[in-house]
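Input sequence (140 aa), recorded before submission:
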Amino acid sequence: MYKYLISLFLLLPGVSSACSCLHVPLEQHVRDSEVIFVGVLISTKLVDLDPAVDKEWPYIEGVIKVETVLKGKVKETEIIKTGIGSSDCGILLTTARAYVIFTDNESGYVGSCDASGELPRYNEAEYISQLRGIINGEKP
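Predicted structure, token format:
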């Protein structure tokens, strides 16, 4: 009986979704981004839109206090937008954590496919140094 139940569960379709990104070298992310900065997330909010009415899907909006500008021009605080999860490639945002942000336009959208994400403090200086080296054209 158990064999039949296990077989049944294996044959039933499941619902799943996942973010799918092509592997892109860090050098290309740096080259393609107009703005790169590191900062601390100071607040977040859910912007709950209706895709049937609005031109956008719901998203998370975060306010980041900028600490280090690596490329481009930014204000003291920047607003970013990211997906709410699942297959939209949004990044998990946790208040009071440090993030590195790569953007290529003024929309403020960031995601895991563009190399934006949380930056552990223990690795921050080394990662910033690596990014500066790429920006300055130094060979790794």
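Checked by second reader. The mean pLDDT is 84.
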